[in-house]
């Protein structure tokens, strides 16, 4: 098979947990950071693919927690809002609203629409929607669907079924039903990737799951699997939408992924030339993607040029050979993290994709209690670093103090 498969995932997780428990008996490793880390316990932002920093770099979005270490239910709310930043310090938290549509990894997809408007997912009368709020006037605008990511100009957003996502990838969707009439279908033709016009509130189905499934039948496993989409992002110029097309069988830990591109200019769909393992990615401003994936038989961070495949390459391998969440500083440099190593230390690295260099930025402790033990109880606290647009700060989540927290660190050289 040409598929990159995850074999015996339960056994792999058991061995990992046993291995780390043995190293827990050893003295804790010393933490490291190039600059002091500013921490606010009880807050987090979530995934690495959208921007928490405001355009003028004086605010950072954050979710305030009222629970931790248990999966959220419909009764569990987050506060959504932001911290003001002054001289690298997080000042008072400004609460804007609440939501009960969230998870520990992708939050409520809180993000900026523009300098004065933010958007996030929530529910109204038990229906999943999204809400745009003017942080200065308090004026609200309700969109009839939850969103995933917003285009750079703030005009459009992507969407998909969070109900379906939660069923087949527990811990990444919400505990609400939106696909109830066809949730048990393996690849329905009335669900998939949507495009929403945030000005007119109109939406359209760009690609349906039946079409995606029919294109991806590579062996018998694909024909008996359930298909879904997730992890959608706009290119910086707004022309392309990238997304994961995934399919799983009864064992949801065993999944295959295609990294797909929809060209809004030509209304065409194509698959990037990588293996069927891809986990995290982001765009730079040259219509290139950095993704942790299987490229030419190597699992690593690969630079993928959407317009010129001749530029595709694996970056900084084997120095950088573990999965991580990336965020670009400029066209060529990006920051990525790692999961906790055998000593439960999670790292931040600065990577130069042109020079293939890797520079350590931080190493912080990740407590055992914040490690996901089973797929349906996804309570892990990954770092999920995001760099501010001017490259001055990196924001990340951490449990280094024993509590889930939001952190920022200056990237200025000392």
Plain-language structure description:
This protein has helices at residues 9-23, 162-168, 209-215, 220-223, and strands spanning 32-33, 37-41, 43-44, 59-64, 78-86, 89-99, 111-114, 117-124, 127-134, 140-143, 156-159, 192-197, 203-208, 226-234, 240-248, 255-263, 268-271, 278-283, 288-295, 298-305, 313-314, 326-328, 333-337, 345-352, 357-365, 386-387, 393-398, 405-410. The longest helix has 15 residues, at 9-23. With 414 residues, the protein is mostly beta strands. The strands form seven sheets. The protein has a five-stranded antiparallel beta sheet, with no helix packed on it. It has a four-stranded antiparallel beta sheet with strand order 2-28-27-26, with no helix packed on it.
Describe this structure in a few short sentences.
With 414 residues, the chain is mainly beta.
Stretches with pLDDT under 50, minimum 5 residues:
1-6
Sheet having the most strands: 5 strands, antiparallel
Query: What's the gyration radius in Å?
Result: 20 Å
Q: Tell me the helix content.
A: under 10%
Strand neighbour order, sheet with most strands:
1-25-24-23-22
N-to-C terminal Cα separation, in Å?
Answer: 50 Å
Q: Give the overall pLDDT as a whole number.
A: 92
Please, how many helices? 4
Find the count of extended strands (DSSP E, 2+ residues).
Answer: 28
| Portion in beta strands | 35-45%
Shape: globular
Content-based structural category: mainly beta
């Amino acid at each position: 098979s040409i598929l990159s498969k995850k074999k015996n995932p339960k056994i792999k997780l058991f061995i990992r947990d046993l291995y780390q428990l043995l190293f827990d008996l050893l003295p804790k490793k010393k933490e490291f950071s190039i600059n002091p880390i500013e921490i606010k316990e009880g807050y987090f932002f979530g995934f690495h693919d959208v921007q928490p920093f405001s355009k003028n770099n004086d605010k950072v979005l954050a979710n305030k927690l009222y629970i931790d270490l248990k999966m959220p239910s419909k009764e569990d709310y987050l506060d959504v809002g932001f911290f003001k930043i002054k001289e690298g310090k997080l000042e008072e938290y400004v609460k804007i609203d609440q939501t009960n549509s969230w998870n520990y990894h992708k939050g409520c997809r809180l993000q900026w629409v523009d300098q004065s408007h933010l958007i996030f997912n929530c529910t109204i009368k038990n229906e999943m929607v999204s809400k745009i709020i003017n942080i200065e006037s308090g004026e609200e605008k309700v969109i009839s669907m939850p969103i995933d990511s917003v285009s750079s100009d703030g005009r459009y957003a992507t969407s998909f079924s969070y109900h379906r996502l939660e069923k087949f990838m527990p811990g990444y969707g919400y505990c609400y039903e939106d696909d109830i009439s066809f949730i048990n279908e393996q690849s329905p033709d009335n669900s998939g990737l949507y495009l929403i016009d945030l000005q007119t509130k109109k939406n359209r189905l760009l690609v349906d799951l039946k079409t995606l499934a029919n294109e991806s039948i590579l062996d018998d496993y694909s024909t008996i699997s359930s298909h879904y989409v997730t992890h959608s992002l706009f290119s910086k110029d707004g022309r392309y939408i990238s997304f994961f097309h995934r399919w799983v069988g009864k064992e949801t830990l065993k999944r295959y992924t295609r990294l797909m591109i929809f060209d809004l200019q030509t209304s065409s769909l194509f698959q990037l030339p990588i293996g069927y393992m891809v986990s995290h990615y982001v765009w730079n401003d040259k219509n290139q993607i950095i993704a942790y994936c299987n490229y030419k038989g190597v699992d690593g961070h690969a630079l993928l040029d959407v317009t010129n495949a001749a530029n595709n390459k694996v970056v900084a391998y084997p120095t950088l050979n573990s999965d991580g969440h990336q965020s670009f500083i400029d066209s060529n440099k990006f920051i990525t993290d790692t999961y906790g190593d055998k000593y439960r230390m999670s790292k931040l690295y600065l990577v130069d994709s042109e020079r293939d260099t890797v520079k350590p930025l931080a190493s912080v402790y990740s407590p055992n209690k914040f490690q996901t033990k089973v797929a349906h109880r996804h309570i892990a606290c990954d770092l999920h670093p995001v760099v501010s647009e001017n490259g001055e700060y990196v924001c990340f989540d951490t449990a280094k103090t024993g509590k889930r927290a939001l952190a920022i660190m200056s990237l200025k050289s000392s």
